[in-house]
Amino acid sequence: MPKNIEREAVVKLEDLPNIGKAGAADLRCIGIHRPDQLVGKSPFEMYDALCAKTGARHDPCVIDVFISVVRFMEGAPALPWWSYTAERKRLLKSG
């Protein structure tokens, strides 16, 4: 379950729901150092950038996490990352 946090209290990446040390490191790897930098980002492009930067194909669940934090910073409620799995699968299938 995501951290119960108010959006206004989110100062560092680790304050985001569904983000711990590893997730924050992934975001920093692709040039995101502050939560407000997530607004307007494409979670799919973020995932592609992470895979390209690290030279490895990451678990597609990382996309779900990226969707969750982008949506949260854009005003959606904090939801567990797996709430976005079906949407990711549908979008990848149609894309």
From TrEMBL:
InterPro entries: Cdd1 (IPR021725). This is Helix-hairpin-helix domain-containing protein.
